[in-house]
Amino acid sequence: MAERPGDWVVIDLGTAHGSVDEDQRPDAGHRRGSRRWRLAGAAAVLLLVCGGAATASPPFRPTASVRVEPASSVSVAGDLLIVADPAPPGTAGAATAAGDGGTAGGDADTGQSLLRGYDLPSGTERWRVQLPTAMSQSATRLGDLVLVASRDSIRRQTGTTAIDAATGAVRWSRDDAVLTVPGAGAGLAVDEVRSASSAGSRVAGRIDSIDLATGRTLWHQRVPSTAVVHAVAGDPALAVFVLDSGQVQVHDLTTGALRGTGMLPPADYAPDNPRLIDDGFVLRHPDGREGQRVALSAYNLDNVGLEWSRPDRARDVRWADCDGNLCGRTPDGIWTLHLDDGALAFATGDGLPWLPVRGSDDQLVFRLLPDERVAVASGGTTTAPRPLGTLPAGNRDCRVGDTALVCRGADGRQLEIFTLPHP
């Protein structure tokens, strides 16, 4: 929670590698239109309205609550609330799934922690399961699976466990990180580089494409040094490797077939650089043109060919996919660029700070009001913001799912569940 009125409070929208799956992946044109009308699926950072407008918004009232420990890890995965509690010393017992009698296999011991799944927005417990203890755990919903990522003290992912979303039964487990994309039946299992300053920024060694239903390896490849790796939705879904040398390899995610290669200019390669969007990506890199320092260049995924390039004067920029355009969040506001030609599509011009939002591209922004309540606004990058309401004072560490906001209370021992209004 921010300490002063006017400070910005950012809601964590789940986890870094994936989002809720849908019955069928829509095409790019349908995605751009439908995102504007999905409250939890709005693909843009949402501009907070001024204090007066937010104060006039109706209050959110909790519809359910869940007791937790202050040290519990909390995730929202679609219509599920996932709570991971460290088990007390000496705890033992079989892992069970409420209602179905499913098991995780094996007994719990002092190296196990309890994972609980709750329905949203009702807060009814659906299942519980024992998993190996980690410094932190987070969950992502993919169809009928929940992928639980375990992380160590430097935030490096050390394992992934796939759990049946309905029963809590463990489907499979791996000792690496798994990168996923909505609509794809395969993912990329990778080993994150061990670095206290950049855990997760690059991967090294062997990269496996895996069947998400079973955890089985479909194909694999080794990178010579380190690389930035992305899974990209589409038909077919793609695996994109950006090597340290600037070489780009585009593979079929399921079969491993090489579909294209190319070279990129020298850049500070990271998970958000290049930024993968629709059928291409945008790279921030040093600009060789006279009088310019940084450039934005767009490339296609067919042959890694250059589509357009323009000077980039933004500092401390964070990228997002805003209704199919490229969305930049900076301390000076938010603006979007057309992917076709890099032209400016929209800019707030308000000078309000925009802070990074972790997790998926479903985003809401909150602001602390003078009376300690938290204002909530919704909208798109090309429309005026729409006030949704205010949260009671003391709520913090919020996350959003398909139908609900989940916030931790002031004492850290209770999660309040707020049902989101229908769009």
UniProtKB/TrEMBL annotation:
Species name: Asanoa ferruginea
Protein name as annotated: Outer membrane protein assembly factor BamB
Cross-referenced Pfam families: PQQ_2
Region annotated Disordered, chain positions: 90-111
Pyrrolo-quinoline quinone repeat domain span: 114-262
InterPro entries named in the record: PQQ_rpt_dom (IPR002372), Quinoprotein_ADH-like_sf (IPR011047), WD40/YVTN_repeat-like_dom_sf (IPR015943)
